[in-house]
Design brief:
The chain is α+β, with helices and mostly antiparallel strands. The chain folds into three domains: about 70 residues; about 140 residues, Jelly Rolls (Sandwich); about 100 residues, Thrombin, subunit H (Beta Barrel), CATH 2.40.10.220. It has twelve helices and 14 strands. The strands form two sheets. Strands 1, 2, 3, 4, 5 and 7 form a six-stranded antiparallel sheet that branches. Helix 1 runs antiparallel to helix 2, helix 2 packs antiparallel against helix 3 and helix 3 packs antiparallel against helix 4. The termini are far apart. The relative contact order is 0.09.
Length: about 325
């Protein structure tokens, strides 16, 4: 369909003050787009009818029904059956919105779907095949569990601002549906109940943290000590150069391997961009006998929202902290 030609024809009818012809032209284009499974185009054209004539209720209602009918016929019934428990908790409209927000992909053996220590912005719905969760502890690779049809992975790093704590590796060729964070965000206004339902359903299954605990794996290798005091930090570029202004936070705890601190900002988007970034930090541990300034580099592993625009930032040091500062 030539959308530019359509737009020109609609404009010509509007210049002639003929709304009915313009609406009918768009309606016909919606039907054609829906039958061709071009649902984004069809829905955008339906919004165009609203703009031209909000009282064209027959065309508005009928076009919505046509789009929904064509969507229903296009849904992968196998996928819907595999995740029946999820879809039965959603409304008809939410089910369609979720399905068409996802992208289907095939994964080959040994391929990494996501990797430990890296950020992840997607949920992975396994339709077919076998995968495995691996946790790397030093040089040792530890098998955490098998993943197969009906499993949803990437939950913690998707719903929390945290790096992946495991790697998901394909064991046999697999088919998965992938939901990107940006896609889900776009649905929030029209379907406010979708994300809470999806999150609740996903967390009813065992989380990665639960699996790691079952294996007796404590990601916090070093003992953490509660502390208070100011910390100043700057973001580092890929070349290790400090960029941007110096920012200030309040220490929460510290260990030989890392620390956490609280940072207050009203800009949620920017603070989440800290995930995975290297920071240069300066701080003093008030409880230490050695109360000299400490200068350390570290990588942000987790960003957790608190109350009143406050965030808890968790980092791993580039090198271990000298033990003299922890006594």
């Amino acid at each position: 369909m030539d959308l530019k030609k359509l737009e020109l024809q609609v404009k010509q009818y509007m210049d002639m003050d003929n709304k009915e012809k313009a609406v009918q032209l768009i309606f016909n284009a919606i039907v054609k787009s829906a039958k061709e499974k071009k649902f984004i185009t069809a829905e955008a054209l339906r919004d165009k009818i609203y703009e031209i004539d909000p009282l064209a209720l027959t065309e508005i209602v009928e076009s919505a029904e046509i789009i929904e009918r064509e969507k229903n016929q296009s849904i992968d019934k196998n996928h819907q059956n595999i995740f029946k428990a999820l879809y039965t908790e959603l409304t008809h409209e939410e089910s369609n919105a979720l399905f068409f927000a996802m992208k289907e992909e095939s994964c080959r053996i040994s391929e990494a779907v996501f990797q430990q220590g890296e950020p992840n912005n997607a949920l992975f719905f396994v339709n077919k095949g076998s995968l495995k969760l691996i946790h790397q502890k030093g040089k040792e690779k530890i098998f955490i569990g098998s993943v197969g049809p009906g499993d949803i992975e990437g939950i913690e790093s998707f719903f929390k601002t945290t790096l992946c704590t495991t790697s998901l590796i394909v064991d046999s060729d697999a088919d998965i549906h992938i939901l990107r964070r940006a896609k889900l965000d776009r649905l929030r206004e029209e379907f406010p109940g979708l994300e809470p339902k999806l999150k609740d359903f996903a967390y009813r299954a065992k989380s990665t943290s639960d699996l790691l605990r079952e294996k007796g794996l404590n990601r916090r290798i070093y003992k953490r000590f509660q502390t208070k005091g100011a910390i100043v930090f700057q973001i580092l570029s890929a070349s290790g150069k400090a960029i941007g202004k110096v920012l200030k936070g309040n220490l929460s705890d510290v260990s030989a391997g890392g620390l956490s601190f609280y940072f207050t900002t009203s800009n949620e988007r920017n603070v989440k961009l800290l995930l995975g970034r290297e920071l240069l930090m300066k701080f003093i541990i008030p409880e230490s006998k050695n109360r000299t300034e400490i200068k350390k580099r570290g990588r942000v592993l987790t960003v957790l929202p608190q109350m009143n625009h406050e965030y808890s930032i968790h980092l791993k040091f580039e090198t271990l902290l000298d033990p003299k500062y922890l006594v």
